[in-house]
């Protein structure tokens, strides 16, 4: 059983959903980013989504774009993100980590070499935002041992869903809004109508991302689905702690982890009977 499958199975047995924070590798610098990554499990993260800095992140709103720019200035790269996971695994061999990024850096790295390095470093899954199912052969033949997490959008109709699900692994990432990250909140009624249609065609857990910002919204998402992904809200809080030169301050790591603790409390109490 993979780490992702084991974690979702454990959470199901406990009767609760998963909190999956998103952080950008190397934002705002390697040491601060690594300190946040190492602190996430203790703060309540059940799984971690680690963003790979990229110059043209088409699915990301201004908040994550700016995080990516800070990370690139700090030397961030696909190889750097993989190395962060390898360092993380020295102390934590249980928390699942999913790399989220774009296809171009993987192609430049070399898909076969990348998948091997990611697997050997302890990466559990990949979200390749701009790789449609029709292009999955770019990576899938090399990805044994890595879960290819597929994105499902509000515009994914029931006719297309089987194609999206083919070859999917780990969990499904339901994109709650039609748009870029961090721009507006998800609508609970829309999610409540959409998620059962996805469940009818798969046994994979479903995590909701895009537009999940507060502990209440994260709790709501885990009542509807199996997990909540929170990214832009955490990165906004991180950015607010930086000095005028964009450097980390003494409060940066603590602020992010405190926010994760609040989100985790919301998720853990989401299914507690009133």
Question: What distinguishing features does this structure have?
Answer:
9 strands, TIM Barrel, 44% helix, 14% strand, alpha/beta, globular, 274 residues
Please write out the topology.
Elements: H1 3-14, E1 18-24, H2 30-43, E2 48-51, H3 62-73, H4 78-88, E3 97-101, H5 103-109, H6 111-121, E4 125-128, E5 147-148, E6 150-152, H7 161-165, E7 172-175, H8 188-199, E8 206-209, H9 215-224, E9 227-230, H10 232-240, H11 252-268
Helix pairs in contact: 2-11, 4-6, 9-11, 10-11
Care to give the gist of this entry?
The chain has helices at residues 3-14, 30-43, 62-73, 78-88, 103-109, 111-121, 161-165, 188-199, 215-224, 232-240, 252-268; strands spanning 18-24, 48-51, 97-101, 125-128, 147-148, 150-152, 172-175, 206-209, 227-230.
CATH H-tier superfamily? Aldolase class I
User: Count the helices. How many?
Assistant: 11
End-to-end Cα distance: 34 Å
What low-confidence regions span 5 or more consecutive residues with pLDDT below 50?
A: none
Q: Total strand count, please?
A: 9
| Strand content range | 5-15%
Assign the CATH class: Alpha Beta
Count of discrete domains: 1
- Which shape, going by the Cα principal axes? globular
Strand order of the largest sheet: 5-4-3-2-1-9-8-7-6
- Architecture in CATH? Alpha-Beta Barrel
Give the % helix.
40-55%
